[in-house]
Design goal:
heterodimer; A: 329 residues; 2 domains; flat; B: 585 residues; alpha+beta; TATA-Binding Protein; seven-stranded antiparallel beta sheet; six-stranded antiparallel beta sheet; 24 strands; elongated
């Protein structure tokens, strides 16, 4: 029973637990399918009131959302109970999966005698720890439980890919990774990546909600989500946090590249796509400040940014040969 | 350009008074389409139209997108600057597509005209955007907070608190109350202006400052890169263990330098490679992966100075008088001795072979032009860990030298006149030479291990493998200007944080006409700010509370935590969408 073995067991278990959490959250969505299109009328009014005296009492009632379960939209007592209990089970399972992942990561570090950020497997599991960690904090502090389904889906798929496709056994690092920038660059990448992922998931929910609002067909679980305007704001906050950190990640990578490879910037495929990702997110921030681009278009750009981030991580590592290929995978 | 803030918030027509202390200026006060006077009108109008278009946010967006798209092909198509070998390969494999790619510069995307055009236009657009904004900001920083709107209730956040319950007379002089409001707001780092019986306060000036710093820093990043590419140089040299390198142009295997670089700029150092330690993974996991590269060198900083010992590792370059020396590669150099047909030593020493794969199957050539009566040449492979599998050609199974072997074919030819033309030392020019054949008529194959000697058929000469050495590839470079870029990058990240996290806000306080109630109105000038309504309500309650009573020590700055921010009342989420942006649309 080596540390490595225990670590693998923890990660595999976490995949199962995340999948169960996902089913619980899916049950939460399903239980809310009876919610009718009560909301959008008020919702529109609220957004329409926009400029000025929008602080009406009607708007306030809507805001309570999920966290205390006392949603004002029409739900039968039984359904409301089911939404609530499924959601709670989902969060509890997510927490268990999170603790398992953290344990797996720590054991992996102990097994390798080094920081566990040396290959795709380790990076993916680390990023997922950050994604789920942030999600849990937001559930606890800000009632973001409505993000449970996409986050647990992402965590299950992420850790699942890690243990099946990306997996490599514990091994020491190649000399190119022997640097303090190893810690700085990769942790910054993992944290900003986690924030981009959460932001991207929110952007998808935003598009769904916004479309329903525009068509006046907000029902089911969508009715329990915050208003699209509110989701947009939260999405922006995640990106606003991630973007400077990603800028730092790229800069730190350039500094490290100078030490390891003797040049700051060499247009290595990984570097190119880090820049492409950066530029797309810069587009997102600009789009949000440009008339005709805010809202759905900006959200689409954010999703494009996330796609670029993932391509940089998976596609470039597996399809294109470059300097960022280490240890087989 | 990265700006989500509302530059000139006009939530209601009467909020921004006509005289707003010079704020706003004419550059950005115009709403969407505000600057769209009919174009054309001669050359000047045309130029102005082009400039307006170029510096608009939409153009910036399009250029940013173009930059992202234009950068992509360089990551998927081989680039001359990264791997010329793969470009040649690509050209060989794609007979029709290759030349087309070549013509449009797809093999050197990042120095191509179209890529340069995109980022230069982007930076022109950036400058065009920044200059007016710097001027506007300079005015705004010196300006007083905007006057109190007539109708506070129309602001996104509004709160009213009765000063005296029932019919009792006001307990506080209006001026005293406004003073308290001003003190409270000042404590919360607002810039406060008391005039006309009301308090106007504003904070968050650093947001725009950070935004400008970020964008200006990007210009300096470009400047730093420009200086580096003008004055910098980079070259590499292969040095066999035991041999040395002196920093002058003749010693480089390849060398590139900026236009403003002069040969005399090279620091006159020299170094000797004394030892090079290598270790590879021998365990089952990641077998063959590199684990250690460590070079011991003796550095002489300038001619005549005392030599010093230094260690050179990956990630630990050595610096000599501003010039950096990196360890960027390594390989094997078999040591051979060639004797010619007359029995004289025609060549002796290490020959650098170039690694071809991860197990360091290395290719190279041994040229003995001085051999007589016929000159001799050899070409083949060095295998650090040679394994033979039946009839297959031998291959290397591990990158370390566990079972080193040299496999060669031999050529002979008449002596050649020295032309002085450069030759590739890694492959043999067999023109005018004939391959040495075995009795069977097949090419004569030579297999050598350290200490072994092979005699060529017909007494044409012998070749002996004396042993092998390692060599390292040293990169010598200097990039002046990069410190500028790095400092600028640090400023950029800092400015970015300010522009994204500082949350500008305006708050106004006024007594109602009858003096019985205090009104507080608030306006967030940036998205993503929570708790405006709470803060405004708190301030109103605090002011209405009797002085000395243990009212909440609330100040509008004590932002509520995330939870309340996210459940904040509708006013905050329904805050006015930005009605105009810093850039003309």
């Amino acid at each position: 029973m080596s540390y490595e073995y225990l670590s693998n067991v923890a990660f595999v278990t976490s995949v199962v637990v995340y999948a169960l959490a996902m089913f619980a959250h899916a049950g939460e969505w399903a239980a809310a399918r009876g919610v009718g299109a009560v909301e959008p009328v008020q919702e529109r009014e609220l957004v329409g009131a926009g400029a000025g005296a929008g602080a009406g009492a009607g708007g306030r009632a809507l805001r309570s959302g999920l966290p205390d379960g006392s949603s004002p939209v029409a739900l039968t007592e039984a359904d409301s109970q089911r939404v609530e209990s499924s959601g709670r089970i989902g969060v509890a399972l997510t927490l268990i999966g999170f603790l398992l992942s953290v344990g797996g990561l720590v054991l992996r570090g102990v097994a390798g005698g080094r920081a566990p950020w040396g290959n795709m497997f380790e990076f993916t599991t680390t990023a997922m720890v950050f994604v789920v960690g942030v999600h849990l904090v937001m559930v606890w502090r800000a009632g973001l439980r409505w993000l449970g389904l996409p986050v647990t889906l992402l965590a299950a798929v992420g850790n699942g890919l890690a243990v099946t496709v990306f997996y490599v056994a514990v091994a020491p690092l190649v000399p190119a990774l022997h640097s303090v920038w190893f810690l700085i660059h990769i942790v910054a990448a993992a944290i900003s990546g986690a924030a981009f992922n959460v932001g991207g998931l929110m952007s998808i929910l935003y598009l769904l909600k916004k479309r329903a609002e525009d068509r006046g067909t907000v029902r089911g679980y969508l009715a329990l989500l915050p208003t699209s305007r509110r989701i947009d704001l939260l999405t922006y906050r995640f990106h606003a946090f991630a973007f400077p950190l990603w800028t730092f990640t790229v800069a730190a990578g350039a500094i490290w590249a100078e030490y390891a490879w003797g040049r700051y910037w060499g247009w290595d495929p990984k570097e190119v796509w880090a820049l492409v990702t950066w530029v797309i997110y810069a587009c997102y921030l600009h789009a949000r400040a440009t008339a005709g681009w805010r809202g759905s278009k900006a959200a689409a750009i954010a999703i494009l940014g996330l796609a670029s981030f993932w391509f940089n991580f998976v596609g470039i590592n597996l399809l294109v040969s470059g300097l960022h290929s280490y240890a087989g995978v | 350009m990265t700006d989500t803030q509302v530059r000139e918030p006009v939530p209601a027509p009467d909020v921004a008074p006509p005289d707003d202390g010079g704020r706003g200026g004419d550059g950005d006060g115009r709403g969407p389409g505000g600057g769209a006077e009919p174009p054309a009108l001669g050359l000047r109008g045309g130029l102005r139209f082009v400039w307006t278009q170029l510096t608009s946010m939409r153009t910036a967006l399009v250029l940013l997108f173009s930059l992202a798209v234009a950068a992509v092909p360089g990551s998927l198509i081989p680039q001359t600057s990264i791997s010329p070998v793969r470009v040649t390969e690509f050209l060989r494999e794609h007979r029709t597509l290759g030349p087309v790619y070549d013509r449009v510069g797809l093999f050197h995307v990042y120095t191509s005209a179209w890529f340069s055009a995109i980022y230069l236009l982007l930076f022109v657009s950036l400058v065009g955007c920044i200059i007016p904004r710097v001027a506007t900001y300079a005015r705004a920083v010196r300006a007083r907070p905007p006057r109190t709107p007539r109708n506070l209730v129309r602001l996104p956040a509004y709160s009213r608190a009765e000063l005296s319950p029932g019919d009792a007379a006001p307990v506080l002089e209006p001026t005293a109350l406004l003073d308290r409001a001003a003190t409270s707001l000042r404590r919360a780092h607002y810039r406060v202006d008391v005039r006309d019986g009301s308090v106007a306060a504003e904070r968050g000036y650093l947001r725009e400052a950070g935004n400008l710093v970020f964008h200006i820093s990007l210009l300096f990043v470009l400047l730093g890169i420009g200086v580096a590419s003008l004055y910098g140089f980079r070259g590499s040299s292969v040095v066999v263990v035991g041999q040395g390198f002196a920093n002058n142009l003749t010693q480089y295997d390849d060398f590139t330098a900026g236009a403003a670089f002069a040969d005399t700029d090279l620091t006159p150092f020299s170094l000797t490679l004394q030892k090079f330690d290598v270790a590879f993974e021998t365990g089952a996991v990641q077998r063959g992966a590199a684990r250690l590269f460590k070079a011991q060198v003796q550095v002489t900083d300038s001619p005549g100075s005392a030599p010093r010992e230094a260690t050179l590792e990956v990630n630990k370059p050595i610096e000599i008088g501003g010039t950096k020396v990196h360890l960027i590669g390594h390989g094997y150099a078999p040591r051979v001795t060639v004797t010619d047909g007359k029995g004289d030593v025609a060549f002796s020493g290490p020959v650098v072979f170039l690694p071809q794969d991860g197990n360091f199957t290395s290719a190279g050539a041994i040229d003995a032009p001085d051999a007589r009566p016929e000159r001799l040449g050899f070409q083949g492979f060095f295998l650090p860990t040679a394994v033979t599998n039946g009839s297959d050609a031998p291959s290397s199974a591990f990158p370390d030298a566990i079972n080193p072997a040299l496999f060669l074919n031999a050529w002979t030819g008449p002596p050649k006149v020295e032309t002085g033309l450069p030759e590739n030392v890694y492959s043999l020019d067999t023109a005018g030479m004939t391959e040495v054949k075995a009795a069977s008529g097949q090419p004569y194959r030579i297999g050598l291990q350290p200490g072994q000697t092979v005699t060529l058929p017909g007494g044409q000469g012998t070749i002996r493998m004396d042993g092998w050495d390692r060599w390292v590839k040293l990169q010598v470079s200097d990039s002046p200007g990069v410190p500028i870029a790095l400092v600028a990058l640090a400023c950029a990240v800092l400015g970015l944080c300010l522009s994204l996290f500082v949350r500008p806000r305006r708050v106004w306080v006024r007594l109602t006409a009858d003096g019985r109630a205090v009104e507080v109105g608030g306006l967030d000038r940036a998205d993503a700010r929570g708790g405006l309504s709470d803060d405004v309500a708190e301030l109103a309650a605090e002011l209405a509370a009797r002085p000395g009573s243990p009212g909440r020590p609330a100040s509008p700055d004590l932002a509520p935590d995330e939870s309340s921010a996210d459940l904040a009342p509708a006013a905050e989420t329904a805050a006015p969408g930005p009605t105009s942006t810093p850039r003309k649309q």
